[in-house]
Write a structure and sequence with these properties.
about 60 residues; mainly beta; 5 strands; about 0% helix; globular
Length: about 60
């Protein structure tokens, strides 16, 4: 069985980002619907869907 290169998962919990934080390009931890915790950019909010690289377990992009 082969896994896809990426999966789309919903963020179930993350701290709110603060205005002005996005300029620094920082990250914050986010808990996904699977229970996994990954580092995401500060602009990602709870309830959004993100694309995760299954090979590295890292954030790729926000899914609209």
């Amino acid at each position: 069985m082969e896994l896809p290169n990426s999966v789309d998962l919903r963020v179930t919990e993350t701290a709110p980002g603060f205005r002005g934080d996005t300029v620094s390009g920082g990250t914050k931890p986010a808990t996904l619907e699977t229970g996994a915790v990954v580092q995401v950019p500060l602009f990602v909010m709870t309830g959004e869907t993100v694309r995760i690289d299954t090979r590295t377990g890292s954030y790729l992009e926000r899914v609209r």
